[in-house]
Amino acid sequence: MQVKNDQPLLFATDLTDFLACRHLSLLGRLTAYGLINRPFTDDPMLEVLRQRGLEHEGQYVAALRQSGKSVIEIDKDGPAPSTQTLSALRSGADVVVQARLEHGQWAGWADVLLRVPGQSSFGPWRYEPVETKLATETRGATLLQLCLYAELLGEIQGAAPEWLKVVKPDTNFTAEQHRFAEFRAYFRLVRHNLEHTLAQPLPESVVHAVTYPEPVAHCDTCNWHSQCRQRWIADDSVCMVAGIQKTQRKELADWGVTKLEQFANMVAPLARKPRRGSVSTLERLHKQARLQLAARSADKPPYELLRIEPEQGLAALPQPSPLDIFLDLEGDRLAEKGGFDCLFGYALRDESGEHRYEALWALSGEEERAAFERLIDLVLERRAHDPGMHVYHYAPYEPTAMKRLMGRYATRADELDILLREKVFVDLYSVVRRGLQAGVESYSIKKLEPLKGQLGQIRAVANALIVRAADRSHARAGSTLGSGAAPRVAPTGGEGRVVGVLPLKRHASR
């Protein structure tokens, strides 16, 4: 948003910000009127993305030139880019790059405008907007952006474009097409809602704002996130409860509960039932809030083991093997075709029984393939000596990456298929989330590191609970514990399986 003659000039970003977070939209408005300053965030990844985006656009434009099309590039820093754009459209150029579109209180910079057959105010031709994007899947924000450009084009050329086009990497510059008419009504609804919101009086500051910074998906990439988080901490907001969703926050707000401490101090079982969602979910969140509140006055986060369920949580852990591997991959999801894994890091016991870390680095496609093959071969080699060994990882990325690498290089397909079918990969994140609750804000590895010193105690309690649950199960079946299969128990020795991948994570970071 910019302020022009004391009136807001709106862009596609204002639309997407409005949908992503109403508080973010208000912050943008306050910034545009000079009431607050936009925080500076030094994020090298954003600069890398910007550069790659420009390179992708440049390659697409170069391909259009090579095909024989006439190209006019608009000088964004020139004195009159809107006039230059209008002149280029009237001249009938095949391609207009970085076109400045403006009508009323809306404006934008279209990556590319392509000339297509059709009648317009310019003559027997019209233009359609094209956006070059790095994402492999077209997002809603991209379609809203294109809808705005199409709407502005319709005002300028007297005829609405038929197609919205997106050019992604590794598609030989073949545009993905979306019919404008299918998205136009939704675009106009969002635009109307934003304009209606902007018609409300401007608050004097963030303190006087009617919106509150609710956690949303956009928080992960938002420049304002650190300030919003400081406010959540100062307010002791219930949104700090790990795993709580908007539905539960709204339900609690209807009860007059907006602070974590309020939620934690409610008497269990809860006297009220939620109008939306399940009672069990809210009770689990209540226990989470209680643990987080207790953690504030404890040296280490308190924890509670969840009810033992067959094949769930700690009971899902296989018997430990001296040949187990702890795996962690590091890479760049935006590099190459679909991402590039530059580090295959894993921990294992060698022949002497000592823990050893190994790192397979890859700086080219050939090296990535070799590292993938080496890892699969290592797992198969160790399974040949002990079919009960497993590969432990934290969160589901590693198996997903294995499938992608197998497909990319057409290698080790049968071997990986066997490993996946036999459930050799064990996700410790799933084990933790279904096995225990801890007084932490999130269940990321870094947040769980303080629990590491309590693993022995957790294992002892878990073993007792698992054996007790198995004993009851066999008793109900009229048998004894010894007459059936041995229960799955939490492993002993080493650093444990609950967060056993933590040392590997630290090693990979180094």
Average pLDDT, to the nearest integer? 87
Query: What is the number of strand segments?
Result: 15
Helical fraction equals 40-55%
Number of helices: 17
Termini Cα gap:
41 Å
Mind describing the biggest β-sheet?
6 strands, mixed
**What fraction of residues sit in β-strands?**
15-25%
The parts where pLDDT drops under 50 for at least 5 residues are 468-510
What's the arrangement of strands in the largest beta sheet? 3-4-5-6-7-8
Task: Give the SSE map.
Elements: E1 2-4, E2 7-9, H1 12-20, H2 22-32, H3 44-66, E3 71-73, H4 81-91, E4 95-103, E5 106-120, E6 123-132, H5 140-157, E7 163-167, E8 176-179, H6 180-198, H7 225-235, H8 246-254, H9 260-264, H10 279-295, E9 303-305, E10 325-332, E11 340-349, E12 355-361, H11 365-385, E13 391-393, H12 397-409, H13 413-421, E14 425-427, H14 428-435, E15 436-438, H15 445-448, H16 455-476, H17 502-509
Parallel strand pairs: 3-4, 6-7, 10-13, 13-14
Antiparallel strand pairs: 1-2, 4-5, 5-6, 7-8, 9-15, 10-11, 11-12
